[in-house]
Amino acid sequence: MEVTVLGCSSATPTSSRCPSGQVLSISGHLYLIDCGEGTQFQLRKLHINFMRIECIFITHSHGDHVFGLIGLLSTMSLLNRTTKLTIFCHPKLEEMLRPQIAFFCENISFELEFVSLRYDRPQVLQEVKTVYVKTIPLRHRIDTCGFLFREQKKDPNIKSEAIFKYGLTIADIVSIKNGHPYYDTMTGEEVDRTELVREAPEPKSFAYISDTIYYPAIVDEIRGVSLLYHEATFMSDLSELAAKTMHSTSRQAAQIAKMAEVKKLIIGHFSSRYSETDALEAEAQEEFPDTTAVYDGFRIVF
Amino acid sequence: MEVTVLGCSSATPTSSRCPSGQVLSISGHLYLIDCGEGTQFQLRKLHINFMRIECIFITHSHGDHVFGLIGLLSTMSLLNRTTKLTIFCHPKLEEMLRPQIAFFCENISFELEFVSLRYDRPQVLQEVKTVYVKTIPLRHRIDTCGFLFREQKKDPNIKSEAIFKYGLTIADIVSIKNGHPYYDTMTGEEVDRTELVREAPEPKSFAYISDTIYYPAIVDEIRGVSLLYHEATFMSDLSELAAKTMHSTSRQAAQIAKMAEVKKLIIGHFSSRYSETDALEAEAQEEFPDTTAVYDGFRIVF
């Protein structure tokens, strides 16, 4: 899995930070999460082939998370994309986008599907062989949800030496992969599983949590994820402003990470008042040491 | 007068060129012409105080000229702009923007006025003491117009030595400024005008011509302007494609400049196929030597 940060500003972008957007590469699939203005430029600068993006997940319909959509769709159409694209978003955002698409992307070159999100409880959005995606309802000024992306457990690999030693058939291999015991046809004894298979690595997972007030109700939903992105708009001295605007502080993001026992935390969505983010990172690290404050272009493989 | 280029790509932006947008500073007024995606970032990077922009002039409603509007308006409102902003554009664009503004810029902090453009003949948009602005209808795939901006002729300055020598009154000064002759009260003879006034410098003018097929009908409208910006999407070897998509070649832009006897030509709106623009510039210079191919961040004072 790989996450690339396209933008990490909050509502008002700065000269060094674009609005929200991240690209997740998971088991060969490319997903875009949020799409602030300039997303198409950032994708280009970071050499991400945006024609390969299969789905766009929009947390909520504030401008800094969606103003890049129409430009991206328009460019995809100008470049003659033909593969289907799915956008998961609020039904009202679809209602806002449809007339723009009709007006600006005449004869759009690809199929565009909108899937409406719900915000009252978690909703499974995808459950295919390789990937599982669900929503995590958040608490912000408007309907908002985060997303949990999880690789599906991969089949174990059958060891080639075992195939030769026991003369395994296709039926045997499928049975072993499905977890059934295997009995040596010569001796009738069960063969130790470790002799037969190499287990696939543990599936990785990524939770994207933005925008939200400090909201410990999500902890069970994101427990143990490999990587958590949590918004950290302010530092703790502005916790009242954070609560009023329904955002989180850096410390609160780290507290969530700690309670959820995640493997690593990255923070973003920084207020434009912070030209440097070292202090935000340091504050979070007091609660959760393995925290990194991201920047535009930040990339992590995990 | 000063022009700053925010973006000079055509429909599909590149990693080094943003979509269309220019800022004109004229007699203390700040005008934005076209507003492609990322305009607010470019304004910020180029240290242009976008809260000072008084008017936005939109040539036509293609995405690469307008996708930055909603983000810019939203940021202006978030930063609590209070002065009125006027947008000159197609009525259909207003119709597209109004619901977005209502949805994304709740309680917008400033007065926003839309002025509908017409495309069948030139239309005077502003005629105030310092500035005169009118449209120049163009020929593109949809309703499109360019804009002519002209400083108004400034009053001459009365020489202070003349004020003392002849004991000029306020009434005398107004009369002289208005071009009337002045008679020496002692001798009764007309005083030579050059002894009384220093004439103001010739008013400067700027014409912005994008997007359009080669269209010599505009020549009379832009005759003798101090600076002409003309789109040059393609080079001459693609003149058929230019005609088909209703754009101009670099050579055609220069031919217009030559016929109109403008003082200087800048070209932009380059197709993404050109990573370098030297050849476009060279082609134009064959027709009109004083041509410059612009780049994002290009600035010219004239």
Keywords:
homodimer, 302 residues, alpha/beta, Metallo-beta-lactamase, Chain A, 2 domains, seven-stranded mixed sheet, 27% helix, globular
Description:
The first copy, chain A, is of the alpha/beta class and 302 residues long. Chain A folds into two domains: 2-154 and 201-301, Metallo-beta-lactamase, Chain A; 157-198, no CATH class. Chain A contains ten helices and 16 strands. Chains A and B meet through α1, α3 and α4 of A and α1, α3 and α4 of B.
Largest sheet of chain A: 7 strands, mixed
CATH architecture of the largest domain in chain A: 4-Layer Sandwich
Q: Which stretches of chain A of 5+ consecutive residues score pLDDT under 50?
A: none
For CATH, the homologous superfamily of the largest domain in chain A is named as Ribonuclease Z/Hydroxyacylglutathione hydrolase-like
Query: Oligomerization state of this entry?
Result: homodimer
Number of strands of chain A: 16
Distance between the termini of chain A: 6 Å
Number of helices of chain A: 10
Give the helices and strands, then pairings.
2 copies of one chain form a homodimer.
Chain A lengths: L1 E6 L13 E6 L2 E5 L5 H7 L7 E5 L5 H4 L2 H10 L6 E5 L1 H14 L7 E5 L7 E4 L3 E7 L7 E7 L5 E2 L1 H7 L3 H8 L15 H4 E2 L6 E5 L17 E5 L7 H7 L4 H10 L5 E4 L9 H10 L3 E3 L5 E3 L1
Parallel strand pairs in A: 3-4, 4-5, 5-6, 12-13, 13-14, 14-15
Antiparallel strand pairs in A: 1-2, 1-16, 2-3, 7-8, 8-9, 9-12, 10-11
